[in-house]
Write a structure and sequence with these properties.
This protein is an alpha/beta fold. Strands 1, 2, 3, 5, 11, 12 and 13 form a 7-stranded mixed β-sheet that branches. It is built from 20 helices and 21 strands. It has 2 domains: 276 residues, 2-Layer Sandwich (Nucleotidyltransferase, domain 5); 201 residues, Nucleotidyltransferase, domain 5.
Length: 528
């Protein structure tokens, strides 16, 4: 049976996962990962990002990503039967952009297999470094783009999001404004995903709609570039962007560079996507009513939608989904670090935190807090500060329950814009091991919650997308439910069911929390 390789280029590392798609024994057969800082210290990055004097600016060297790809493919070639490798796809950090000059096409096609790729690419970069998703230096450009297209709401309706500093469109506009000569010398602007796919194929690769929709440039309705957004961003931008093609498109085959350098076969190179869209596949969210909640440094809720519905508050995001249709996503900055703040405030261990949460009463006697320990994304809160209502600051057990209830209620409130009847939740991330937290999640959402133990969901999703695209290119229309079977599934025995009595309590608390949040936001706005 054929093997399929998925790659995930995140901010800090590159991961590879190989799956055997045999119907009876479908499984991950090889996995490897490297951290950029450790494996490629010559690039001088810290956590994958170049040191910076301006905290708003975040850039990385594209050559580092190329050399990491070289190292990882060498490992893969040494550990699998390469003759069985049928197709490769990838996932990459969203929003980051790579700027190439007119020599890029010929250099990509003629890389010297005796040399590492990074050094060979230096001369084709019209912008020496790639701005990434952590960059927040484009507030002025965001405002200019929104004004040009009729406001934030208009931009969100067409592209899925209001203008965000980390998105690619504002970054392109900043480059044009501050380095007009560099912009003029740019023939192709790639996302990290299409840049790495181009490197594999030895020619410029297209973008898939999932990653393209993280740019503030793509029309969600047509899945093509929106002329008004292009015009608002930079002149003559259309010809500099890759084409947007279906996510299961075969962009080419592994170039002779990789075939010679690592003795790999001419496997199909399937168009890459972004990490969030790939995670949709990697967590098996292939029908409406399923969502995933990731409890990490930030908390995130995302799921598949049949139709694009923009968030009227402009805090949520809509991306095109690699399986067709769309995905909605809302991000909350005050995630695990906020839970840790409460844990440490009362000198608790995580096991002690869990015991208290499990022993306190749902609804907390009406006591609530707004967990804005840091500036918040959803809802937008610039001035941090915890707000309490009917809750004593020194009451440890009540604060433990209040922080978890607040986070779950906020996610329930701020995911309603997706218009999805949530019946099942797949919980991922570090805190998903805490079943007391999952019980609150189940009760607030009135949904079954399952723990999801698969590791790098984005990388798994990339491998599964390679499997799906290989079948599609051979004339086999595989259902996505079959594609994700066995690999992208939750642990059946981990089910947490909602408690009906607790649910009745939360129906009342959710309304009062919404009013408390609205009042706090209004007070913050009036004082600024």
């Amino acid at each position: 049976m054929p093997l399929y390789l998925g790659l995930d280029s995140s901010t800090q590392s590159l991961t590879a996962i190989v799956i055997d798609a045999d119907a009876d024994r479908r499984a991950i057969v090889y996995e490897t990962s490297l951290k950029f800082d450790e494996a490629l210290p010559r690039y001088g990055t810290r956590h994958g990002v170049l040191p910076r004097t301006d905290p708003a600016v975040a850039v990385s060297p594209p050559q580092m990503w190329a050399d990491a790809l070289d190292l990882v493919l060498g490992r893969v070639a040494a550990h699998i039967d390469v003759s069985r490798l049928a197709a490769i796809s990838g996932s990459a950090q969203q929003h980051g952009s790579v700027y190439l000059n007119a020599d890029a096409a010929s250099v990509l096609a003629r890389l010297d297999p005796a040399r590492e790729p990074g050094d060979q690419l230096t001369r084709v970069l019209s912008r020496p470094f790639a701005p990434i998703w952590m960059d927040s230096s484009t507030s002025a450009e965001c405002a200019e783009i929104e004004a040009a297209v009729g406001g934030a709401a208009a931009l969100a309706r067409r592209t899925g999001s209001r203008a965000f500093e980390r998105f690619t469109g504002p970054q392109i506009r900043k480059f044009f404004k501050h380095d007009a000569e560099g912009y003029a010398a740019t023939e192709r602007i790639h996302l990290v995903s299409s840049f790495l796919a181009s490197l594999l194929a030895g020619e410029h690769a297209p973008l898939d709609p999932g990653d393209a929709s993280g740019m503030n440039l793509m029309d969600l309705g047509s899945l093509g570039w929106w002329p008004a957004a292009l015009d608002a961003t930079a002149p003559d931008l259309f010809r500099r962007l890759p084409a947007v093609v279906p996510s299961w498109t075969v962009a080419g085959h592994l170039s002779s560079y990789w075939q010679t350098r690592h003795r790999l076969p001419p496997a199909k190179v399937v168009v890459w996507s972004g990490d969030n869209p790939c995670s949709l596949v990697g967590t098996g969210l292939v029908r409406e009513g399923l969502v995933a909640i990731s409890l990490g440094t930030s908390d995130t809720i995302f799921g598949w939608m049949r139709a694009p519905r923009a968030d009227p508050t402009s805090t949520g995001h809509v991306f095109a989904a690699p399986i067709g249709g769309y995905m909605g996503m809302t991000v909350f900055k005050n995630g695990s670090l906020a839970r840790e703040q409460v844990r440490d405030m009362f000198g608790l261990t995580w096991s002690g935190f869990s015991r208290i949460l499990a022993s306190t009463v749902p609804g907390n006697g009406g006591g609530m807090l707004l967990p804005w320990f840091e500036p918040e994304i959803t809802p937008p809160v610039l001035r941090p500060g915890v707000r309490r209502l009917g809750l004593a600051a020194n009451d440890g057990p009540a604060n433990v329950r209040a922080i978890v209830e607040a986070q779950m209620i906020a996610m329930a409130l701020h995911s309603r814009w997706m218009g999805v009847d949530i019946r099942t939740i797949y919980a991922t991330g570090g805190a998903s091991a805490n079943r007391a937290i999952l019980q609150v999640m189940a009760d607030v959402f009135d949904a079954d919650v399952y723990q999801f133990e698969a590791g790098n969901a984005a990388c798994v999703g990339a491998a599964l997308r390679a499997f799906h695209a290989d079948a599609a290119s051979s004339g086999h229309d595989l259902a996505w439910e079959d594609v994700v079977r066995r690999i992208a599934e939750p642990v059946a025995s981990s089910r947490v069911q909602p408690d009906r009595a607790a649910r009745a309590v939360y129906e009342d608390l959710i309304g009062r929390y919404a009013a408390f949040e609205a009042e706090a936001l209004a007070a913050s706005a009036s004082s600024s």
